[in-house]
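Worked problem 6 (solution included).
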Amino acid sequence: MTPDLMNQGAERVARFEVEAARRAAGGAGGTASYGRVLKDRQAVDVSHGRILYLDDVCVSFDGFKAINNLSLDIAPGELRCIIGPNGAGKTTMMDIITGKTRPDSGTVFFGSTIDLLRHNEPEIAQLGIGRKFQKPTVFEHLSVVENLELALKTDKRVGASMRFKLDSAQTDRLHEVLTTIHLLPDALRTAGNLSHGQKQWLEIGMLLMQDPKLLLLDEPVAGMTDHETERTAELFLSLKGKHSLMVVEHDMSFVRTISDIVTVLCDGSVLAQGTLDQVQADERVIEVYLGR
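Solution. The predicted structure is:
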């Protein structure tokens, strides 16, 4: 990182501290922003009661059917857990939703009108679908608040980025997200010094800065301590209703805490669906996944 960029980062942190002090004191006003907000995303029509709809989706890799006539739908504000054995198609399903993999056949809609198969990965992210992979990816040499600031929906061109200053609404949003992800006390810490669980929360916070309608989360509590897992459950439950969440997870205790409906995938299609108690009692699920 060049000295100029380091100085600019230090200045932004200093401004954040000033704005934080202003908020704590109940002050008003704020600095002007020179960042241009990106063009409004296409509206998501959920009038039919579904924010995500997959119908009869198939994809093969070298003759192997990774996804086999998969049909699945999720309601707005729902927190859906996806479970199943390794190789069941969970990751491939999320690859299809986010545009990383194109299916051989089938339909994938975001709301009632947005055909996701007509969009690439960046466009799908702009439409309001955020994805978090299992391993956290944050800028470890930057502070927590700088990571979140980079994720703001602003003009990322060089000139605009050099002139960018947080306005009061953006500072308020940073505080809101920091509070949501349990990292407000750590706002100025270097991200590389956070625990594994805290890095996971930070990456979720970076997604939240984009105000996604749908979040796809792949094994979010893998490697976490019991305390971090508990705090993550609290976080997800606080997001439920405000966002739709699809959570792929193997920790059944965590799944029981957060999810009303659980979908079990096997061999690229839905094997069972219902409450956790219902799917755990299903003989087919016991046979292929849970064991006796």
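Discussion: The chain has a mean pLDDT of 84.
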